[in-house]
Amino acid sequence: MNAPAAQHPVRGILYMMGALALFALLDTISKHLASRHPVAVVVWGRYFAHFLITLAVFLPRHGSELFHTARPGLQVVRGLMLVGTTGAVVMAFQRMPLAEVTALIFVTPFLVTLLAVTFLGEKMAAWRWLPVLAGFSGVLLIARPTGGSLNVGVLFVLAGACCYSVYQVLTRKLSAVDRSVSQLFYTALVGAVTMCVLLPWFWVPDALTTRDWLLIASLGMLAASSHLLMIMALRAAPATTLSPFTYAQLVWATLLGWLVFDDFPDQSSLFGMLIIVVSGIVVAYSERFTRKA
């Protein structure tokens, strides 16, 4: 069993920011593929490529240690939560713009904070909820309703957010007992096995072009890199410290949505992003001052 990880908030924040940039690129490619192929095929490609890359990179270096886990049951549940997140979000991508989906997924930090305080015993001063709530108001400015009826894509995003919050809390919990590479391996393994079981019901022979296969391979590389960075971030800093910084993914998603899908945010969305960034900075400094006190 590993000793509790030392806390390095700045390092954790930097790891998280790198992970979020890669997540935004992963989402962009997934949205593109989902516009032409079934969701199950896209999710399968993402996890199977992730699994192969993880084995190729880490098995020669770590050997049998790669398979070691103190909590195999939790690793399976954690992996299934991420599969659920990926499937729900990719289904939302088929129905909604990239930036809007990303904005709506940001109910996750609130759920993570609640779960981390409740189940992991992490502390959160009452006044520090204010900038977090201000950040949520920025999310609402970006994700304001666009029509009179409820888009089913919104339901998919909310389901994905619930799965993702459980995934993040389990990542934090397992970081105390399992190595980062083992968590990365089990994420890929559970996802690959699950999607290989489901794939025959959705596979269309010869539907994937050479370009599609290359994009699918890139999904695996991006997924492996981003999740390793996130695991390292959660080992270095508490979930309550990192949660506000997850809003940075909104900036990346909006930029990529504009460049790839010609979806540029209006003034309200830009103002919402400003609120989110400012609230994240306030929380970051409050964490620094709290530790110095």
Provide a descriptive summary of the structure in words.
There is one protein chain. This protein is mostly helical and 293 residues long. It has one domain (9-292). Helix content is 74%, strand content 0%. The chain is built from 12 helices and no strands. The chain has helices at 9-34, 39-62, 72-93, 98-104, 108-119, 129-142, 152-174, 180-198, 210-236, 239-242, 248-261, 267-292. Helix 2 runs antiparallel to helix 8 (180-198). The protein is globular, with a radius of gyration of 19 Å. The two termini are 32 Å apart.
- Specify the number of helices: 12
Q: What are the low-pLDDT stretches, counting only 5+ consecutive residues below 50? A: none
E-strand count:
0
User: H/E series, N to C?
Assistant: HHHHHHHHHHHH
How far apart the termini lie comes to 32 Å
Q: How much β-strand is present in the residues?
A: under 5%
What would you call the shape? globular
Radius of gyration (Å): 19 Å
Q: Sheet with the most strands?
A: none
- Give the structural class: mainly alpha
Average pLDDT over all residues = 82
**Helix amount, in percent?**
over 70%
The total tally of domains equals 1
Keywords, separated by commas or semicolons:
293 residues, mainly alpha, 12 helices, globular, transmembrane helix, membrane, EamA_dom
Would you spell out the secondary-structure blueprint of this structure?
Layout: H1 9-34, H2 39-62, H3 72-93, H4 98-104, H5 108-119, H6 129-142, H7 152-174, H8 180-198, H9 210-236, H10 239-242, H11 248-261, H12 267-292
Helix pairs in contact: 1-9, 1-11, 2-3, 2-8, 2-9, 3-7, 3-8, 4-11, 5-7, 6-12, 8-9
Keywords: Membrane, Transmembrane, Transmembrane helix
Domain EamA: 11-143, 152-283
Pfam families: EamA
